Amino acid sequence: MDTSIRTSGIRAWQYVRESNSASEEALSRAAIENGIVRYTYGEMFEQWDKYAATFSALRMTESYHARVGLLGSTSAEAIFAFYGLNMTGAEVSVIPVYTSFSIEKVSTTIKNEMLTDIILTDDYAQPAFITSLIAKKKELGLNNILVMHVPVGGNSVNGFITTAQKYKHLVDRIAIAPICMDALLELYGDSPIEYASSEESDSSIILHTSGTTSGTGKPIPLSDSAFNSIGGVYQILEKRYPELENNIICGVTIDLSNSYSMVNQVHGTLSLGGTLAMVPGCAMNPEFYKSIPEFGQTLLFVTAAFIEIWMRSANRKQLDFSSLKLLVLGGSFVSVADKRRYYDFFKEYGADNLKIINGYGLTELGGACLLSGEDLDDESIGYPMPGVEMRLYNEDQKKFLTVEDAPCNGILYLRSDLMTEGILDGNEVVKTYTIDGTKYICTNDIVSVDKSGKCFFLGRASRYFINDNGVKYESGKVEVAVSRQEGIEACVVVPLYLKLIHDNIPMLCVKAVDEAGSGKETVRKALLKVFKAGKILPADQLPHRVLITDDLPRNQNGKVDVFRIMRGEADGSQYAVKPVRIGPKIMDIILEPVSDENEKEAILQNAYKTIAKDLMESNNPINNNNNNINNRMEEKFMKQMNPYEFFKEMNAKQTETFKKMFENNPYCQGYKDYQEKQAEAFKTCQEKQAEAFKNMFENCKPDVERIKEYNKMMMEHNEKMHKMTIDIFKDINEENKKFAEAFFGMVKEDAEKKSPVKKAAAKKATEKKPATKKATAKKTAGKKEETKPVEE
């Protein structure tokens, strides 16, 4: 990368293009690989131009005040659309992919963020969802609803899903008839591009947190300059880890709506001329691991939850991490014990020279703010990165401290070059605090800083109970202290409601690494190390119950899901915690199984007056609204979904959709009839064959008896149908190829008759000048011209 390229005052697309256009060699490097096609930087830039030209023709531009929602699929097509929209100056809101399972979630996002257009990807958006959104188009005030076809393939995807995705695209273009992006690119791809002005917006790019009280991700607006600052972070990584220089091949592991993905993985990699390895479903795909050796990935960003899944995988013998050079762990604190386990695991499967570091950051700050070293004995979350400033609010001293006051501790406030302004359409969506004339964001984490400037995570400022005497039970500190002990994989404190006292007591839920036993002794030893004689935490912080479970539910970002545990979705053995004391000091701890006989005694010994809502309140002296722990429960289906099972769930739903499509679609019915009569058709003369097929095809009607007959045949000849489906797409022999061309030619002819794109093209050809209806609408912060889009 040319390090002289400025980051401020230019758009995101310019930053990447200017950084990688210095030579033919730079343009010929691989930019994106997905197992189906490989795009060089030159080819990727050509795609950006085609997309930008199409968006210009559809008036999805800065001059029309467009703000476009883009489903954050981990696909090359989504990246082309993102940078194409950035070229035209349209603001881009990257929407979490899980919203595509709920029309209500997407509708809420469209209304709250005042989106003018929306672009869906058909790898996640199912036909029923697309149809429902089209029906609500006028109600939601959308100008355009576009659908991008995402080819699904590669060795990490089942072959049937690959074939079925092709059929689904065919149905989208015919039966549902949305405006398909591939057709629009053919129609408008060579139109003049209406480039964005040089004046950037504070909301050029809108990313999202994992969830809010509304059940949809909170919007985080970022300027182009803030977005481009990630290039400096990557230059630091290259200097610290020279093995990455000119060798960054980064696997995209999280959907593009998250800063950990879009900023740290995508834009950072492209800014330094690296390669993005794209896998359908990202790391939630159970076979993501196959892409690591396939693409020779050298850099990987993951959460600890995904490593734990790989460590328990039944496919461990197939793992190959030999290409990896650097692994960045984010999302949560990682103990020294866990880090040692991870090193041993990766080394076992070929990663002899791998280095593992911890990254600490927030979506509101554009991702990473602090980086730890690869030192195995390092318990810290690292040092602030260049350009990052921090302040600590100390409750005892009632003032903000600086690094110069170290050693010290307090609630962490941060600012960086990647920080959001927090304002969207004049509304404050991210709370900022002015300290000594500078804006900061409160992380709501309690940290300590030693004399060297190294930071240590102590817990969440908002995680506590309060008893009758106003004494705090520091849930966050207990979680961190216990999680650092040997044999503890993960833990969290939740309120346990007991009818006998009509109140809640603190219960520690633990997942222990104990293959030989129940984990009881491991947990007891961990509690003793933390609480014996007040070694780490005082006796009044001892939890009153312990739940030892085989699995702690996690949300879509891999973090332990407190809300699902509070709803009783964690099974395991529950124990009353009975301390053995000498005076006020704890000398031993007994974990006694909870039963009806000892229930009352355990309650009386451990009674704390608290209520569930106190768990979500903040003790920050400044009223802080930027607190992810305050998030209410998301909708039921999201809370019940294990992140690792997410891609499997998508495959299952998509497969079921295809089966129904085969049963009900008249085109597929006609094709099946054609296959049955194929032998007879071969015997007829070549001249009559096409006409016979046409007559047969036109006469196919989806009557009840025919559908019943077909369903029966599907059950009896599923394997045969699968083979024929593959044959038609792979053109195994020349004769089938001819019939395939005839079949798809008829489908195309029929589609063109119904296609709104074809109608638009015909209309465009006959008009001297495009007609534009102008109206005044208060769509964003100012006024914009609202025009009539391509009709559907």
Task: Report on the architecture of this protein.
- The chain is an alpha/beta fold.
- The strands form 7 sheets. It has a 9-stranded mixed sheet with strand order 2-1-11-10-12-13-14-15-16.
- Helix 8 crosses helix 21 (646-664) and helix 22 packs antiparallel against helix 24 (686-698).
- The radius of gyration is 29 Å and the shape is globular.
Which secondary structure elements does this structure contain, and how are they paired or packed?
Elements: H1 12-19, H2 24-27, E1 30-33, E2 38-40, H3 41-57, E3 67-71, H4 76-88, E4 91-95, H5 103-112, E5 117-121, H6 127-135, H7 137-140, E6 144-148, H8 159-176, E7 179-180, H9 181-188, E8 205-208, E9 219-222, H10 224-228, H11 230-240, E10 249-251, H12 259-271, E11 275-277, H13 291-295, E12 299-303, H14 304-311, E13 326-330, H15 336-348, E14 355-362, E15 367-371, E16 383-384, E17 389-394, E18 399-401, E19 408-415, E20 423-424, E21 427-428, E22 433-435, E23 438-449, E24 455-460, E25 465-466, E26 472-473, H16 475-483, E27 488-498, E28 503-512, H17 520-531, E29 545-549, H18 562-566, E30 572-582, E31 585-593, H19 596-606, H20 636-639, H21 646-664, H22 666-676, H23 678-683, H24 686-698, H25 704-716, H26 718-730, H27 734-754, H28 756-766, E32 776-777, E33 784-785
Parallel strand pairs: 1-11, 3-4, 3-5, 4-8, 5-6, 6-7, 10-11, 10-12, 12-13, 13-14, 28-29
Antiparallel strand pairs: 1-2, 8-9, 14-15, 15-16, 17-18, 17-19, 19-23, 20-21, 22-23, 23-24, 25-26, 27-28, 29-30, 30-31, 32-33
